[in-house]
Specification:
Length: 190
Amino acid sequence: MRLAHPLQTAVRFPTLLLMIPTLALAEPFTVKVDNLDHGRFSNEQVYGGFGCHGDNVSPRIAWSHVPPGAKSLVVTINDPDAPTDGLGWTHWEVVNIPASQASLEKGASGNPALLPAGAIETLTDFGESKYGGPCPPQGTSHRYVVTVSALDVAHIDVKKASSSALVAYQMSGKVIARARYVAKYRRASD
């Protein structure tokens, strides 16, 4: 029996490694909301109206690892605990965000200079096309689901006055991935 020369073995080993298929482990699509106190909105982000006395400043929302094939993004903040017979309450919706963007900056709502080019703020359940912060009924705590949806189209056909139902309809069949973050807010009893 003849043994291979050590140099021949050394040359063969890297060749074998090249033949082994590599597994690409994609990082998960994630979203986070900055400046929350242990996952809870501060008064700065709370709505200024309906009996709430917040500053109504939209938070910074950042995402990472947008999936390949995404051409645009939609950011939505919805309160599934709102007393609306299970319909929830849309607090903010920004559509047609280029997939190359990584965030919406703090205070971007109502400030075109801070919104990504081409992005549109659509109608919320407050009846305005801008951010409306948390404002649950007195003495209750609600969840606020921040969702970033990656779409396979560059834009959806909506306007500033489009409802969240129309946005959802236009997104139907175009969503390739979603990332969610759940924040909370409790409104104290007066």
